[in-house]
Description:
42% of the residues lie in helices and 13% in strands. Helix 1 runs parallel beside helix 3, helix 1 packs across helix 9 and helix 7 packs parallel to helix 8. Strand 8, helix 8 and strand 9 form a beta-alpha-beta unit. Strands 1, 4, 5, 6, 7 and 10 form a six-stranded parallel β-sheet that branches. The protein has 282 residues and is an alpha/beta fold. The mean pLDDT is 95.
Amino acid sequence: MKSARTVPVLMYHHVSPVEGSITTSPERFDEQLAALAGAGYTTLTAAQFAGFMQGQPVPEKSILITFDDGYLDNWIYADPILKKYGMKAVLFLVTSWAHEGPCRPQMGAGTLPDMLSHRQCMDLVAAGGNTDLMTARWSEVMAMDATGFEVHSHTHTHTRWDKRAESREIKSEQILSELEISKKILEAKTGHREEHICWPQGFFDSDYVQAARQAGYVYFYTTDQFGFNKPFGNPEHIYRIPISNRSGSWVVRRVNLSRNLLVGALFNKFKKWKRGFRKQSD
């Protein structure tokens, strides 16, 4: 088997009929997975991806699919579509948002609950509302985890302590506490060792990184899309490509580009330059 030289990691949030800037419709998500499957792509588990980062071979056309936050629509819509194509994914869950309760119906199996938009979800969190309306329950999370949509840490409360804490010392203490609580809960629920952390809003600095190391995390997932995840690369800076309501053909082209170490590097360099130019022009 010829092993992958780099593994693209895809980043999703919502799969829902309610439109939004970081939302993919169920129909479009189905189209995207069909296109990836048709192009010969294999989805990895988090353990397989970790092994790849350590130098272990994986299929040449491998990808990792990730979802941030743990929204209810991931259970209702994304999970059945992933199963349809026999694909795996990683769910980065904000552990304090998940509630107890029975599994709700999935797409194609009963009357579905109403979905909230991403803005409604964030307003609900800001107001201290009932996150059970927007987040997958533990019963749903565990059902997904048992069948290939595995759960990992997105901290306990999704708080940006660099904005909230009154001092750097308090900031570091709060970050460490968040990471340790989330890790403890997930390990108790799933029974597997938790080493994967996804940063809230994609933000991290040296204090965040140090706290994650201290808590026992090894693989740190960013929102930086302009780089390559390669064997023996930096596990504390995993690149991810944001995917929204794009066509299946667009997703395949973007993934193909991110596997091309020559053309992809030129693309990343141009995009970084363009982003920096825009900031200077603002």
